[in-house]
Amino acid sequence: METASIPGFVRTIFWIIAIYYIIKILARLFLPVIAKKVVEKASQQFQQQQENYQNQNTTQNQTNQKPKEKKIVGEYVDFEEIE
Asked: What is the distance between the alpha carbons of residues 77 and 8, in angstroms, rounded to a whole number?
């Protein structure tokens, strides 16, 4: 049966701390770039949805528009009061 040694324990703790700081530094470098890409992609999708919605509405309005028929009722007579 093997027993744990102090140098092995210290070496393990050192590697855990080193890996933690390496990940922390890499996250500070790359997370802003990744976040910027995600925001750009989301805004691009939002713009595309807006354009699709506007195009859909304009085509619907064009197909649904009918020329309004004017009813001919007769001549308009303007009456004035005489005192």
From this structure: 109
- Output the CA torsion sign for 22, 28, 32, 38: positive
pTM assigned to the model: 0.49
Segment 35-75, tens digit of pLDDT: 999 999 999 999 999 998 888 877 776 666 666 667 777 77
H/E stretch holding 28 reads helix 6-64
Q: 65 to each of 44, 48, 57, 60, how far by Cα in Å? A: 32, 26, 12, 8
Residue 12 in tokens: 């393990």
